[in-house]
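Form P-L/3: holo structure prediction, ligand magnesium ion.
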Amino acid sequence: MQDYKVLIDEKTVKDRIAEVGAQIRKDFEGKPILAVCVLRGAVVFYADLIRHLPKTTGLDFIAAKSYGSGTTSTGEVALTKDLSEPVRGRHVIIIEDIVDTGVTLTYLKKLLLAREPASVSVCTLLDKPSRRKVELVPEYSCFTVPNEFIVGYGLDYAEEYRTLKDVCILEPWVYQKD
Ligand code: 5GP
Ligand code: MG
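OUTPUT (holo model):
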């Protein structure tokens, strides 16, 4: 039995990323960008998006863990890997795979804002606004998705499915059995 189904195919994703990348280029013209990838889920999206950004764009990586198991989170966040670059005076764009409850990004935004950047904005591949627990509106969002568990294009279920080329919905029987 197939354990996932395609929600957004690879070509549609790549075309939309090009559009959002062009918008960011325009909005930040002449401004120094630090593109911050939230590990690990955002890596595929990040690699696609940064190739639409100016050559002066700096790259850095951060990781946060939200406690919980399976497909739900408890709302507690901890930093597991910090940036290597200073953010002071730079325009930070946090690049994330999916905004769900909004708790992770609220935490990361607050953390980075305390380091006095010129600005902090959020660019997400996917937005699941129906599940929001805190008010968080990403400045850039490629697609709004329904309240389903998404895998592929970097997003995992128990560290698997990240390598799927399309954005997919995981069939509920896969995670409902545990
Ligand atoms: P938050 O609930 O804090 O907005 O999202 C925290 C993290 O939960 C996301 O960065 C992502 O790693 C994970 N997450 C939320 N919804 C999904 C989903 O549908 N699929 C996958 N694979 N991860 C998700
Ligand atoms: Mg994530």
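COMMENT: The radius of gyration is 16 Å.
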